Amino acid sequence: MSAAANAKTELQSPGLPGSASKPARKWFLAALLIALLLFPLTNLVSGSMNYVLFMMLYIFMYIAMASSWNIIGGYTGYTSLGHNVFFAIGAYFSGVMLVYFKISPYLTAPLAGLLAMGVGLLVGVISLRTRGPAFIISTVAMILLVKITFDNWDYIGGSNGLSLPIPDLDVTISKFPPYYAMLLLAVGAVYLSYRIRHSKFGLGLRAISQDETKAEVAGINTNYYKILAFAISALFVGMAGSIWGYYLTYLRPNIFLTVLMAAQLVLMTLLGGKGTVAGPVVGAVVFILANEFFVSQLGFTELNIVATGVLMIVVLLFFPEGIVGTLKERGKLPQFLDWE
Amino acid sequence: MAFLEIQDLTKSFGGIQAVDHCTFSVEQGSITALIGPNGAGKTTVFNLITGLIKPDSGKVLFEGREITAKKPNQITRAGISRTFQISRDLGEMTVLENLVVQSPTRGFLDLFQGSILNHEYEKAMELLDFVGITRLAHEKAKKLSYGQKKLMEFAAVLMTEPKLVMLDEPAGGVNPALLEDIVARIELLNSRGLTFLIVEHNMDVVMNLCSPVVVMAYGKVIAQGKPQEIQANPIVLEAYLGEG
Lengths: 340, 244
Hints:
heterodimer, A: mainly alpha, ABC transporter involved in vitamin B12 uptake, BtuC, two-stranded antiparallel ribbon, 16 helices, 1% strand, disordered N terminus, B: alpha/beta, Rossmann fold, 6-stranded mixed β-sheet, 4-stranded antiparallel β-sheet, 10 strands
């Protein structure tokens, strides 16, 4: 209720740029959402859309995670290379709840998110004492610590991993639950990111990213803001992990806890434009589709990684602030993508 | 009891004694100047008062309460606002946002209000009007000239409803016409009861605007008093001009 009231306040502020209603954006987003909600039904007709559904839920997942990462990495300017820790925590929490207590991950996903958030809070209190490269390294250390712990924790399967029961669904609709769950997470994460971008909290985070001393002297409790941002950025990543783990039906530390996976979140956000609302979304779509295209053309060789890397370099050469960031700076961002 | 009391403040960086048993006070309603040759420790004193660095020993009291161990944001919220010698702006944010970011929030839920509330918008525009840069409200701060940034910073510190404003070289690099404007604004605000502590090298500004004047050299306070007394003080002249 208060969220709606606040949004209204902001719209009414006289003379604020971007506060005028944007019909193109509104219609685009509404149409897009309806299309995405209805899209799986095509599988009932043709039955051959499972691959497309998989690609889409995979993209939704990364949209949710990149948008969340953007809260700490983009708005706040603290590059975390350890966000897959929250992903793993979510996956394992829901996995354990399923295997040992027979509770569906779709029910435990919110709890998994909150658990990830709690861990984020604890880790943040310690690691956010550092900044710059030291912070990045502390987040990488977090991956290694959690990986060693999980590898040696027999209850959750150790390094052999944990097998989950396979969901018993007809093949035409088997992708429906994860599809809608990931869609919900993507929408939720983007909305959260949007709300933060337009809140006092977001203003403070952006101040921190530009000059932390100045922000502190301006009266912002920078430690509190940073820790809160870090914790909030873990929420949807934990939930995504919970759903993804169930989708894979197999959890193993060395699938979830690699630096490469954390780096992907960073790369797609940079590609789309860090610190913008639409950037992580555009980045996730472009990055995953490009990577998939290269895999299909070049196979699962090292070459597909090289090709994705070259694409990153070329795009960032012409769009140094990311696709959305640079277009916005040049005033060429189409209205339907201007989610600021 | 003075408004702001600096008691025996000491800070060294490695072997350099930047501030050495510095003691002075700022009376409520005054425009106190803090002057001294380069390297005297003035900016360090500013940083110590605002909590950006912690003293080795000594105390800072504001309205009778000790603020020495407090964090910068708590000191700002207690009523002390400052500008920086080399103005620090949040370049990617608009001028308006640079002002509004200073306004206080209370409690957790306040954080998730809209970034610029109506009353903050009005107040910020009023202050921009006051310093004469209303037309720049929606520009990114990085696009402003040096002088415009000084004005923006000046307006921004007023957003917090401070009791004490600390200005680090408000006249530095500012053209004479703009300087007159700034001085006039300071005098106006002071006549409404706002207290100032100003570090400044421009002696015309110091002697005409400020009283009392505190003089520092080598981290110590070497003299304080009315501008006329300071101008005639042989110790001060020696500190500035060297031994004749």
